[in-house]
Structure formats: structure tokens, C-alpha cells
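One such shown below:
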Amino acid sequence: MAERPMRSWTRPHDWAEVVLGVVALLTPLWADTDTTAMWTMVVLGAVIALDGLLSLSMPGLVYGEGAQVVLGALLFIAPWVMTYTQLDVAAWSSWIIGALTAVAGLAALPVANAVHRGGATTAH
């Protein structure tokens, strides 16, 4: 059971990050958005999903999990910074997906640190 976090493509935290990124990326399909909200969600969603895939392929990459926390925080504050709080579904999607992404990144940090310290960063 201790070997599981060291294997590529097996960590649920990273899969959650991929799914959250894809949901953010696709949110403009069902939510009313303006150009700013749409591109913010598409770009941040794509980067979140890609970073999740990178973390899945390289389980000991601690920086990937830290990046997820930052990306989640950016998505969370995006409705205020990019001024789309009036677009209810888009704003709430950003807040919820951003918070969940940050939580998933924080939850995965100890696992990534343990793998990194153990030196087992290659796929098995």
C-alpha cells in the first residue's frame, strides 16, 4: 500500500485536478459568459488540467502540486479580478472549482513530498 503514491497515473488527487481543470475549461459551454470570463476559465482550466496530467506522470514533482494551489487561488479570485461576478454560474464555478483545486493541491503536497524524498519519481 505504501508503494501506491509512487506509481504514475494512480493518485486520486491528481485525477481530481485533471477533472476540475476540464470542468473549468468546459464551463463556458453551459454558463453565460462574456469574453473575459470565457477566456479566463478556458485558459486556467486548461493549465490546471495539464498540470494535473504532469503531476500524474511524475508523482514526485512537488512543484506541480504547489502550482495547483496557486492556480486554484487564481481561479478563485478571477471573478473579482476579471470582473465577472455578475455572471452567476461562471463566477460560482470559478469560486467552487478554484477552491477545490487548491484543496486538492494542498492534499497532494505531502504525498508528492514523500515520493520526492524517497527518490521514487519514475513510473513503475
Notes: Confidence is low (pLDDT under 50) at residues 1-5, 120-124. The chain has one domain: 4-118.
